[in-house]
Amino acid sequence: MAMRVVTAAAELLGAESLVEVSSAHIDGCLHHGDGGVEFAEALVEGGGRVVVPTTLNVGALDLLHPDVVRADAHKTDMARRQMEAYVAMGAQPTFTCAPYQVGHEPGVGEQVAWGESNAIAFVNSVLGARTERYGDFLDACCALTGRAPLHGLHLAENRTATVVIDATAVPEALKSRDVFYPVLGTWLGLQIGQEIPVIKGLPPTTTRDQLKALGAAAASSGAVALFHVAGVTPEAPTVEAAIGLGSRVPPTSPPGWESRQLRSLPRTVLLDSGSVRSALRRLSTAGGSDRIDAVALGSPHFSTREFRALHRCLRGRSLGVPFYVCTARDTLADVEAAGIADELRSSGVEIVADTCVVVTPILPARNGVLMTNSGKFAHYGPSNTGYDVLYGSLEDCVESAITGDVVRSQEVWAW
Amino acid sequence: MTDSAAIEIRGRPLILGEGRGPLLRLTHPISFWGGVEPTTGRIVDPRHPEFEFSITGTVLAIPAAVGSSSSSAIMLELLREGTAPAAILMGKADAILALGGVVGREIGYEPIPIVEVTPGDLDRLPDGAGVSVHADGRVTVD
User: Fold this and answer.
1) How far is residue B43 CA from its own chain's centroid?
2) Which of A152, A232, A248, B89 is the most buried (most CB within 10 A)?
């Protein structure tokens, strides 16, 4: 059955052949209805086993803390069966949208089949492995067959940048801050949709967490599956390499070569202060609010480094509003072992594992204003939770949550 | 005035099958995930021009599908719940929506035809007309 689905998909996509993949990340654990459960259980009954290392995306439940999610008994039961079916097929019970933070890191040029938009952007862009945008069912069938339709971003010729984003004008102080990257990603997704950008002018010290936040936001506001950052990501040692010029430039240019090349150069889009400010505004639907009712962090799932930063910010103080941090169970185990998790909990932090606040009912049923440092939560929060959102830095979120009065540092945006 | 009963269009079948129903033409692309509620078959995206229309039992003409790859999961749930359209005509083939049909067929839900039809041919179909979709990809007005 899985092979029939993969070959049917290949025909639909116009792929002429299949490619062997070396890993998979399945975004099929989330319960949308009972058909998804019947599909997964049919695969199990047919003896389906994954043939490549496979991680699982979030489900609709926190299996470690069952009381966190408010769902009726039927949905809870079906959501659990759906998660368990994929584990029965041999997938690792990671239940995270950030498998790249729990040891699942394919290498440059590796062919893989990954689902979940932020994970797709990360594995393509930051790790340099190759996947198309796989969704429900097809990612699982690729894991069971070890094959994927050979098309799109699996092919080197489709991975070159088609637009240059020039961020050199952005002040270095802003580019060094985590709070800049979801804003950049949001603008990027709106600006370019499905195109492949190469961004120039970001510091070589740009962190993985910053790239993660950039990709997740760009894959929410747009459909960005691959971005290059010149001097930072593996397929973009230079802008020229990312746009595919490097290897094609002859050592001595024949007559007329320059003008011919110039015509095929991708366009350049300048990132100016007006664009940054408008993307920043767009991330908040409650921009004028001076009170918040809850805070949610961890989309994509919080990394150990982000937990440490939160711990430093909080300094043992007590929080005045509900404060959720979503993460992978493996990351939670790390921060438990480091002794941080208990200290955060005693301050009032609720740590959610295996799922997150925008895919399943976790937030208090009364609506209000949700503050977040995540571009993805800011994007999906209003439609999926009913809360208005307010975007700010990690520090802003913590300071605001102490009393519920909004604290937002504005000076970093002065440009 | 053309005789609409004489209209016959040939499309490319993405999912084979037969179905008939009144034509519902969407004037804007749609993401099934976040756009259609599978238990009711209604369009729930308030920004969509056909907000609150029911797609159940219609021959649904869509210029294009957009948005989340979870739309294949919503397609599957529509088939399971019996709230799916009778057939789908797409101006631009979409693998994600069709994949929901492939999986539905695999697990034994009643299939519906999904056929790619050129946007020009889609325009030839009269709004609200009874339309039949045949197993070979032909689309006729009843």
Assistant:
1) 13
2) B89
